[in-house]
């Protein structure tokens, strides 16, 4: 579904080139969940934006569903770091935004937004503004806003970073439910190792200098008490060790 080939990317600031990603190579099957982890500033958001077609690589290419990504793609939805909800619009308008941009007729927008709100149990929040929502509610609204566009690829950029541990676990389970129900392919950026192991069918570790480091595969069906079992434990230990080495190597 997603193929990234020898991808490199630099930001150019006042004529100076700052290389961020180097030779990133991976592919993700349809209906997989790829988690990208790595220390702060290593280029996770940049990689996600390149896959979304919001950044143009200097070298290499990104392919989604057999087509090279050169601009934002209709069936790719992005949930930004801190959700990216518009504070001056209510929940209904926030969810309707993407459909409006696409010029969908009003009646169809109403039908789409109402049925999606109902699906996620947020109908009663329709007239509230983002500042009146809890972190968990905001996350549901952000997911509804993405899914009303009927995407096949969902890109999530650290959607749970500001949420307490228990709510976070409930939301991770919510993402897994949505993944199954909507048969999505997901790329999820996080710097939380446990989250990556819980959600991912694959995990990529990005190094501090934007090098792609390791690729792990995890079981798709994880079962109810996966978090308490040996696979979860072993994978988190391995991953933590890898991350520690990356951070140490880059600080030498
Ligand atoms: N628009 C920009 N112009 C120039 N440099 C940028 C720009 N956006 C990001 N950077 C730099 O590129 C590097 C990678 O940024 P990016 O946001 O991709 O990191 P990240 O891994 O998502 O970090 P975090 O975990 O903190 O969200 C950082 O050093 C950042 O300062
Ligand atoms: Mg980021």
Automatic annotation (TrEMBL):
PROSITE patterns in alphabetical order: ABC_TRANSPORTER_1, ABC_TRANSPORTER_2
Record flagged with keyword Nucleotide-binding: yes
GO molecular function: ATP binding; ATP hydrolysis activity
Domain ABC transporter residues, every copy: 2-233
Keyword Amino-acid biosynthesis: no
InterPro entries according to UniProt: AAA+_ATPase, ABC_transporter-like_ATP-bd, ABC_transporter-like_CS, ABC_transporter_ATP-bind, P-loop_NTPase
Pfam families (UniProt xref): ABC_tran
Keyword vocabulary terms for this entry: ATP-binding, Cell inner membrane, Cell membrane, Membrane, Nucleotide-binding, Translocase, Transport
Protein name per Swiss-Prot or TrEMBL: ATP-binding cassette domain-containing protein
Organism, as annotated: Syntrophorhabdus aromaticivorans
């Amino acid at each position: 579904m997603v193929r990234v080939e020898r991808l490199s990317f630099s930001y150019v600031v006042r004529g100076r080139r700052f290389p961020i990603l180097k030779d990133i190579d991976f592919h993700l099957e349809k209906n997989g969940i790829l988690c990208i982890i790595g220390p702060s500033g290593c280029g996770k958001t940049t990689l996600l934006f390149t896959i979304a077609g919001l950044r143009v690589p200097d070298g290499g290419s990104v392919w989604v569903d057999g087509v090279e990504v050169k601009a934002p793609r209709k069936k790719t939805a992005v949930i930004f770091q801190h959700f990216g909800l518009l504070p001056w619009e209510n929940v209904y308008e926030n969810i309707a935004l993407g459909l409006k941009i696409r010029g969908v007729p009003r009646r169809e927008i109403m039908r789409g937004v109402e049925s999606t709100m109902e699906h996620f149990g947020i109908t009663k929040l329709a007239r509230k503004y983002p500042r009146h929502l809890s972190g968990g509610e905001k996350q549901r609204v952000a997911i509804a806003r993405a899914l009303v566009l009927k995407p096949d690829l969902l890109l999530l950029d650290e959607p749970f970073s500001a949420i307490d541990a228990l709510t976070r676990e409930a939301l991770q389970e919510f993402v897994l439910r949505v993944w199954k129900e909507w048969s999505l392919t997901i790329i999820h950026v996080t710097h939380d190792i446990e989250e990556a192991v819980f959600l991912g069918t694959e995990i990529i570790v990005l190094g501090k200098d934007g090098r792609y480091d390791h690729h792990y595969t995890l079981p798709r069906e994880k079962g109810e008490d996966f978090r308490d079992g040996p696979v979860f434990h072993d994978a988190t230990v391995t991953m933590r060790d890898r991350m520690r080495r990356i951070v140490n190597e880059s600080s030498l």
